[in-house]
Structure formats: structure tokens, C-alpha cells
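Repro case for the chain-ordering regression, as requested:
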Amino acid sequence: MRRTLWRRAVCAAGLALTIALPAAADDTPKRGGTLIYMIPADAPPSFDAQREETYATIHAAAPYYSTLVRANPMDPGSPDLVCDLCTEMPTPTDNGKTWTFKIRTGVKFHDGTPLTAADVVASWNKIIFPPEGVVSPRQSNFLMVDKVEATDPQTVVFHLKFATDAFILALADPYAWIYSKAKLDQDVHWYEKNILGSGPFKFVKYETGQSIEGVRNPDYYHAGLPYLDGIKGIFADKQVTRVEAIRSDQAAIEFRGFPPTVRDELKQALGDKLAVQTSDWNCGGLITPNHKKKPFDDPRVRRALTLAIDRWGSAADLAKIAIVHTVGGLTFPASPLAPSKEELQQIAGYWPDIEKSRAEAKRLLKEAGQENLTFELLNRSTDQPYKYYGIWVVDQWAKIGVHVTQKVLPTGPWFAAMRAEDFDLTVEGNCQNVVNPLADVGKYLPHTISEGNYGNFEDEHEVDLYNRMLRELDKAKQKALLLEFNKYVLDEQAHGIFLLWWQRIVPYHSYVKGWKIGPSHYVNQDLGTVWLDK
Amino acid sequence: MHRYIVSRLLLVIPTLLGAATLVFILMRLIPGDICLVRLGSGGTGFSTQALAACHAEIGIDKPWLLQFWDFIWGLARGDFGISMWSGKPVIQEIATRFPVSLEVALLATTIAIVIAIPLGTISALKQNTWIDLVVRTFSIAGIATPAFWLGILSILLVLDVSQAITGHPWMPSIDYVPIWKDPIRNLSIVMLPAITVGYRYAAVSMRMTRSAMLEVLREDYIRTARAKGLLEKIVINRHALKNALLPVVTVIGIEFAFLIGGLVVTEQVFNLNGIGRLMVQAVQNQDYTLTQALVMLTVTLAVLSNLVVDLLYAWLDPRIRLK
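-- result from build under test --
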């Protein structure tokens, strides 16, 4: 069963990753040159990835840092992780509760000081057990960790409270940069304004809000890497600027992703000088009903709203104009643990016959006394894909006679409205990094467990189901539990109304080689394997 | 004169205080705060603990009155504080961007003056002829066309034309370099935004020049000058234009002050790391300290540019006495 699952995973990934690399696989990397790339953001708030949530920090400074383990740079969508600072991926002991990592010898920070297990432990302790006053937004991903310790200068041991498959995937967090213990001891906030890592590139300079530059690290521990002499990231928040920069070859690539219309525009302008890589994106859109507001406390109403949405019929058209693409449940579609199409079609809102689905939606609304339902949909003023989601569902709900108005707010006020429970339904996103099927669905747990859930409900059954799933080590049983979880959250209770998964489209100059797209724009950004065929 | 300047400068204090109070309150009336933007930028959730730590670190968990006192006391000492977003001194954030906006503003003003005054004068002198019609159409188009749209269009035009001619699309660099480091590259970067902004600026000034000139040309002293047999050139340049310039100088002064902090969209379109773009970022990020400082800077510049305009009035028209 496990082998079948992984085979299906490979097939799914193959379907999801439509890679149009013009370079043949046997291209011999060339050394030298400077990669100029666009960073689709303004100045990052800080350079301390351990405290930030934005990709602006990752895209700006990941090339200067190392991590303990990471996604495979040559296959970043694969669940098979590889070592960065460790020497080999360990097999856990103590019934899966102890993970021992050997750290490479001879690794140096860019200031010449040696990197040891003490630095790795100090960095992970800051993430998992942050001192008072230190922000660590992904701390909850490591609730299974009991203790991290260095048993000798080259050995790091993670002791877990319980064994779970979610741990090792969480450990590959691309934000988990390894810092110098000495610097952290000196000032725990030092890394917010300074860059000092052990990654493939050495930091040179940062022009605030404009650009960031680095040069090749000659002491890099991955032999022969990096290929480039230097890198330069240019910050540009406006999409039009970034597109024009790529078109005029002022920049070779932007790693986050463009909408399909931009891909077409660049392809038309640059022809075969442009390469495109496409992938399913580990980001999904969802609508969260506020269970504290009537009539959304009634599962029949929530169920009717998900039944009205024609996901199968709309996905292809929406994919032409927006960064959305794949119909799926709560689990990343290319994951071996994701429900199959047939399984998905058993869930409300995913039925193959939309007319039947909408008839059932109308029946449920009538039964709940909500035939003339009217409400306000809260949305975030981010063009892609939030506004597209909003316009789409308003139209879909109109087809069952539900009248909806949209309220679109900037990020700050949007979060404030959700936290204040001041909304009927809200459009949200769930964007994760390394695909971690068990942990990634944590977002859909009640607010008391998952503070990122704004549905304002309690559900002991759901929490129990999740806890069983998190502790389950058998892949087939994990998949079955995940399917049960999907059915329960999306159909039976309709706590959330899942929309479509995103698609990541990265058009770039074809002379850029050695970079592989993955299902997350946070992953595979150290640029160590990138080279220029010029 | 000196007394007048000092009294005008002293007026800056209550103006700044009023603006400071207003911006302090308005920023805090916007729902949400910088921590929500910062922690939520990934699109996922975050813990209350993380939010509380962020509030404490930035200092927005303190009572408003205390925050206001910190702000005013800092202002009195010339200390604008630390940017809540970047953690860097606000003065440093502004100082990095100010030269960029200043350069574009100066260049746009030069372009505007060079275009507006001659064309506005010619249009007035050739009133109701085809020349007047062309100039008026040109100026109305300038007022009606948004600078950001013209900016995008001009970049696309450069890209398309260069691709058609050379086969390779080209556009000015989007990575700013100061003029003292590479003057040619610098000018290639700031020229398009300066022309884009300068056109609208010129259009406004051109219409003002034309109407002021038309008014002045009907004055008795112009008729007298012509009756005395003065050369038309002297009548126009020495007698008419100098007097017609008074309202034009006002427009130029106001526009210049606006340009320093007001190139909000143009700086975004051309990826210029100036004050306007910084203002957008500060407001979007709900960075109270930075927004407050930028508003203070804009208000100060507006007040000072009005003062300079008033002083220019006295120079242009000796009948005006500044008291």
C-alpha cells in the first residue's frame, strides 16, 4: 500500500509539475556571472527569517544562510529531504522520538568562525523555545519537540514528546536559518539588522528597499558550489516594473510567480529566450464562515454555501487569468496523502454534477429557513488571487439565490476584522512551505488549538481526529484519517469552504539554469545550484 | 523683512503641532496595526503570544497618551524615533530616499519651467490662432493624463521601439545610482519619470502663464509701453512677463513642495526608491513612526516653499512689501 501511495505521488507530482526547461539534463554547469533577480516586495521588515513571515526576507537573504535539512534543490517538490548542514539524514530511534543529526565538520560562518552543533541548537531553541520578547511565528509547528541538545560539537539531538511524521518535514522549514550562537548570546535581535550565515553566498551590501548583493562564498561546504560569482536582488513591489525588468533583461528571473497573463505577455515578447516552470503551489484559498454569526452557526447553511460552488467547472477558466489552478481538498493535491478525484467527488462541493449540488444547496437553505440569505464577504485587498476568489464565489452563490456584497480591506484591517470576529464570512489563504500534509491541515482546527483559524467554533471530535492523525506512523492509515478529516471539515461540518489550490508560474530568461521550481516560493531559494548559460 | 521671515518660521511650530496631532490620531484610528501586517504577511495565522511580543517590542502596547508624548518629545529634540517596520532610525530611512525624490522634483520643475513659460506666453500672444489651439490642447492633455499611466506607457513605448529597432527590448535601469557615481546612468533613470511628472506640472503652469499673460497684456501700462514705441520684445519680456509670473511662481512653488512627497505612484511605476514610495509603504505597513515623520517632513516643506514663494513675490513686484 505504501509503495502504491508513493508511486501515485510521483505520478501526481509529474502531472502537477509541468516543467518546460529548455536546457537538457546533461548540461554542464558554467561558472561565473552575476544573477540579477527581482524580489516582488518592498524592503523586508528584518533579515531575521526566524521571526518573519514574509517571502521578502527569504528571497533577499536565503542565499547567505544554511539550514539543518532542506528540500532537495534538484527536486524541491519531493518529500525526500536532504541534508544541508547535517552529514546524512538520520533514522529516528526510541520509537521515533529521538532524532540525532551529525553536523558537517569544517563549516564556517562568513566571518571565519566555525559553525558547530552549539550554533544549530541555539538557533533551534530560539525558534522552538523563544526567550521572552522574541517573536517566533512558526513555534507551534514544533509542539512535538521536547528538547534540543548538543551532545558533542558535531551532534545535535532532538527529543520529541511523541513520534510523528510531521516532525522531519517541519524541520526543513526554509525560515530556520542557522545563526551564530555567539551573536545570539550577544544580542538575540542581532540578526534582524545584520546578515551573517554560512550559505553559498557572502553578503556584500544592502541598499535599503532597493537592492541586496552578495558574492560567492569560496569556503562553501557543498563542494563545487555555488556556480555564480555573485547575486543581486532588486526590490520592486509593482508587478509592471518586474515584468518590464525581465523583458528588458535587467533581471533574469523573479522566483515567486506571475499570473498566466504575464507568462503569455513575456513569451510573446521574448520567444525562445524565455523558459517557464510551472507547479502546483502549496497555497490554497478558503472561505471561513464565522460560526458565531447567525445563520452560519447552522451546518446546513455552511454546507449549502460550499455545495453552490462549481470547482470542477470553473478551475480551468480561472486558471487562465489568476494564479489558481487545481481542485483539491485540504491536503496538497500532489501529496501521496491527498484524496483521489473519486474520493474528493464524494465530498459536498466536489460532486461531479453541479446542478444536483445546487439543488441540494437550495433545499438545505430552505430547510434552514434561509431562502433569501444575504451577507457580507470580507476579503483582503490583494489582487492575486484573493480578489479573483471573491468575485468568483459571489457569482457562484448568486446561482442559488444568495445575495452577497464584498468588503475588501488592506492586510492590517482585514486581520483586525477577523480577530475582532467582525465578519460573516472571510476569504483566506493557507500558504505553507515544505509540503507537510499532517501539519499543514492544522490551520483548520478550532481557534483554541490553531490561532490562525477565525471560524470561532469548538469541535472536540475534529481535534481528536487530528491528534490521532498526527501520531499515526502508518502511511495508509494516515491517508485514511486525512480523508476522514477532509470529509468531516469540508462536508459534514463545513467549518471551512475550500476553494482552489494556487499555481506557481515562473517565467525567466532561458540562460538561467540549475534552478528547479517547487511547490513553495519559500523553498529552494539559496541559489547555490544556479548557473548562467551565457 | 528679517522680522517677517522669523515670524513666518515661528508659525511652522503650531502648524507642525496640529499636523502631528492629526496624523497621530488618524493612524491609530485605522483598524489593525503593524504587527498584524508583519505577522500576517505570509497569509497564514499567528499566535496571540507572537502578537503580544511584537506589540511589546514596538511599544504600541503603551497607552496612546504615552505614545503621543514620546512622539512630541522626540519631535522637539529632532528625534523621529525608530521605524516600526525596519527597526532603523526614521531619519536614516528618509535620508536614503530624499535625494531621489529631490532630484526628480528638481528635474521635473526645470522641465516644467522650460516648457510652460515660453509656450504659455506664445499661446497668450497668439490667442485664438491655431498655435494657441495646439498649445491649449497640449496643456489640457497634460492635466487630464494621469502621470502613472503616462509613465507605464512611456516605458512600454521605449521597450517596443527599442525592440523594433535593435531586436532587443531596452529600458532605463530600475536600479538607482546617485548622480555623483554615474551621471549618465543616473540621468537615464530619472529622465523618464521627470518628463512624465514634468509634463503634467508644465501643463498646469502653462495654463496659468497664458491666462496671467492675457490679463497683463490688456493692462494700460502695456498699451502705454507700446505707444511709447518700445520694441515688442521689450514690452513682452520686461513689462508683461515679469508681472504675469506672480501666479505662475505660486503654482510652481506649491507643485514643487507636492512633488517631494507626492510622487507616490510615479515612484512605484519607475521603481524609484523615493519619499513617495516610502510613504506608501509606511501607510500600508501601518508604520506609525515613519508615517508621522514623513507627514511632518511634507508639512515642513509645504510651509517653507510657501515662504519662498512669498519672498519671490517681493522680488518680482517691489510694490509688495512684506510686513
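Ordering looks correct now. Residues 90-125 of chain B form the longest helix (36 residues).
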